[in-house]
Design a protein that fits this description.
Layout lengths: L1 H13 L8 E13 L7 E14 L4 E12 L1 E3 L2 E16 L5 E18 L2 E19 L4 E13 L2 E13 L1
Antiparallel strand pairs: 1-2, 1-9, 2-3, 3-5, 4-5, 5-6, 6-7, 7-8, 8-9
Length: about 170
């Protein structure tokens, strides 16, 4: 049920993108911190890259689709951990002040994590409601910098969250 609800929410969020003239594309690097279930260190970070496609619905609301992959996995003692993919749909609520647009966002993210060890490989699908806050800073009419902190997952007592920085182009 949760998966179907999440997919329906993501579809509703992304549908307005097809008709928006005020859209954007971007790429972000996220230092994703998570509670350690595998290495016994308390927590660890992986580096994720996210491609972003979005558009403004109106002056205050925008929608966005993100697709991500681990660039920098966690490896230790013959084990390695990574995300094979993250996909999510999000709605952000913000306001443009001159060249800065602060916002909050909420959405739904699904992904596949993988742990490899000498005993084999294990994959797990993760999905959850996501939320965060950030700001877009314009360097002209079309190009800008995105700064954000997002919690993508919180399940089984494990959270996946972290800061992100990226570039975007408005069309």
């Amino acid at each position: 049920m949760k998966k179907r609800l999440g997919m329906a929410i993501a579809a509703l969020l992304v549908l307005p993108l097809t008709s928006l003239a005020d859209g954007f594309v971007g790429i972000n690097y996220t230092q994703l911190k998570q509670d350690d279930r595998f290495f016994g260190d308390g927590d660890f970070d992986t580096g994720e890259v996210f491609a972003r496609l979005g558009g403004r619905v109106n002056k205050y609301v925008s929608t966005e689709l993100r697709v991500g992959k681990t660039l920098s996995d966690k490896s230790e003692g013959g084990m390695s951990y990574q995300f094979n993919y993250n996909v999510g749909g999000y709605v952000s609520f913000g306001y443009q002040f001159d060249y800065v647009r602060p916002y909050v966002l909420v959405g739904y993210t699904t992904g596949e994590e993988e742990i490899d060890s000498s005993s084999g490989s294990h994959k797990n699908t993760i999905e959850d409601i996501s939320y965060g806050a950030g700001a877009d800073v314009l360097f002209g009419e079309k190009v800008g910098l995105n700064l954000e902190y997002t919690q993508y997952y919180d399940f089984w007592g494990t959270t996946y969250k972290g800061p992100s920085v990226g570039l975007f182009y408005q069309f």
